[in-house]
Amino acid sequence: MKQFIKTSLLVGGILLAQTFQAVQAGDGDKLRAALDGATPLIEDLKYLTDKIGGRPMGSKANERAVDWIASRLRDAGLAVTTPSFDLPRNWIAGQAHATVTSSSFSFEPTFVPRVYSASTDGDVTANIVDIGLGTEEDFARVGDAVEGAFALVHTPVLTDKAGLAGLFSEYTQSYHAKARAAAAGAKGIIYVSSRPKGLMMRHVSVKAFDNTLITATIDRENGLRIQRGIKAGEAVTMTANIKADDTKGGQARNVIAEILGSERPDEIIIIGAHMDSHDLGTGALDNGTNTSIVMDMARQIKASGIVPKRTIRFALWNGEEYGLLGSGAYVAAHMDQMNNHIVSITHDIGGGRINGYLVNGGAGLLEETNRAMDVINDRGPFANFVVPIVGTDNYDFMMYGVPNLVASQEDATYASNYHAQSDTFDKVDLVQLKKNAAIAGHTVLHFANSAWRGTRATAAEIASMVEANSLHPSMDSFGLLDAWRRGERGLNPDPVD
Ligand SMILES: [Zn+2]
């Protein structure tokens, strides 16, 4: 999960009244009992993270994860396919190092290129210019000096207390700093790690697969040391060497499992979580937790003999971290079925308690989601909000007008471990994981059995949603804005060439 939410919407609003009502008898209860009982949920998460480990798109571990998930779901009796899709760019991390030098020091910081960073042809040496937080005032202060230089960007420490709000402000800050540095002709952009004590992470570059700049993170302590040197008046240079395997093209695979509906088999509820991860940690919170939940939900629905009225598709998306590629490819490949996709549900915010859904998609969807949560309100409180999310796998559904939900989760340990070496199995609250599986399963089954059916948003409605919510920077950040403007990814009433 990587996106911008209007924080006010998360903290404001009114919690749903916890009405006292009998939980609907029948399949919902059955599924809940199954998911609450002994299942391989935790075993699966442990295997995916400890045995397979970090699984960035294009890696052997990613291929292994796809095959393992598919075989686990086949063993559970589901119909499974692993459709492949073409990649706009296939970036695989390789060797990278940097040396920082001034008249008084020389040292090697920990240096991690962001995904889609440009590689260097051998060593590249340039001055480092401290652009602070990368605000307009910061750029006014440094003037022309940033041209041809490495722009060093500072970032506040991202703690669990800062949570998702802190994460989104880091994204916004990186985006604007990068846009200004690129406009000023910087040779590259170097972010100081937002996690102290040497903890490193790998993010995707701003503009994702459209990025052309050298883009990397250095450890916080050495970043601060460079800043002190520059402040003291020293000229500081950096020699960087990045060698990524960055061949154009290639393919990756999603995993799609299906349970056919009994009454309206052509109507589809799609529940997805991305199975890929960045490579420094093992992708436990992002997004092994929700991958395991989707797998367990599919398995327990099947094992309980529950037959939903509508078809349920369970999607383990690939390439989310690299530009929402797997879900985007699915939507493109199923464009003629989008009218029959009743709702798309995405889970991608870690291991904290599910506290509701972020809802996008026209009249009645919020009310129907409220009804879904009401049935399981003893696991609440829940609060659902209308908010369009950019930055996870609901995106292409949303931009083609399909009603969509993204699970909202409490911050827990998500932010401090986000994309970092420390995103490992031990950070996951396993008791909460079980509870989340039941909430998620209940919600999916509710929409599969409900008579509710929304309408797809039109191109004009999508354009006004983008405008009204100022989604442009976040779309641009993930390489999505230009494609939408051209009418190539998402409905656009007025595409430009
Ligand atoms: Zn994620």
Describe this structure in words.
Residues 2-24 have low confidence and may be disordered. The protein has 16 helices and 18 strands. An eight-stranded mixed beta sheet has the order 1-12-14-13-15-18-16-17. An eight-stranded mixed beta sheet has the order 4-3-10-6-7-8-9-5, with helices on both faces. A two-stranded antiparallel ribbon has the order 2-11. It has helices at 7-11, 27-36, 41-52, 60-75, 136-142, 163-183, 220-231, 284-303, 325-333, 365-374, 395-399, 414-417, 430-449, 459-468, 472-477, 481-485; strands at residues 79-81, 84-86, 92-101, 106-107, 111-113, 124-130, 150-153, 188-192, 214-218, 237-245, 251-253, 255-259, 264-274, 310-317, 341-346, 354-360, 385-386, 404-409. It folds into two domains: 7-88 and 250-457, Aminopeptidase (3-Layer(aba) Sandwich); 92-245, Glucose Oxidase, domain 1. By secondary structure, the chain is of the alpha/beta class. The chain starts with 6 loop residues before the first helix and ends in a 12-residue tail after the last helix. 35% of the residues lie in helices and 20% in strands. The longest helix has 21 residues, at 163-183. Zinc ion binds next to helix 8.
Estimated structural class: alpha/beta
**Overall geometry:** globular
**Main beta sheet:** 8 strands, mixed
CATH fold name of the largest domain, please? Aminopeptidase
- Low-confidence parts lasting 5 or more residues at pLDDT below 50? 2-24
The figure for the number of domains is 2
Task: List the SSEs and their pairings.
Elements: H1 7-11, H2 27-36, H3 41-52, H4 60-75, E1 79-81, E2 84-86, E3 92-101, E4 106-107, E5 111-113, E6 124-130, H5 136-142, E7 150-153, H6 163-183, E8 188-192, E9 214-218, H7 220-231, E10 237-245, E11 251-253, E12 255-259, E13 264-274, H8 284-303, E14 310-317, H9 325-333, E15 341-346, E16 354-360, H10 365-374, E17 385-386, H11 395-399, E18 404-409, H12 414-417, H13 430-449, H14 459-468, H15 472-477, H16 481-485
Parallel strand pairs: 6-7, 7-8, 8-9, 13-14, 13-15, 15-18, 16-17
Antiparallel strand pairs: 1-12, 2-11, 3-4, 3-10, 5-9, 6-10, 12-14, 16-18
Helix pairs in contact: 2-13, 3-8, 8-13, 10-13
The chain binds zinc ion (ZN).
The site of zinc ion has 6 residues, from helix 8.
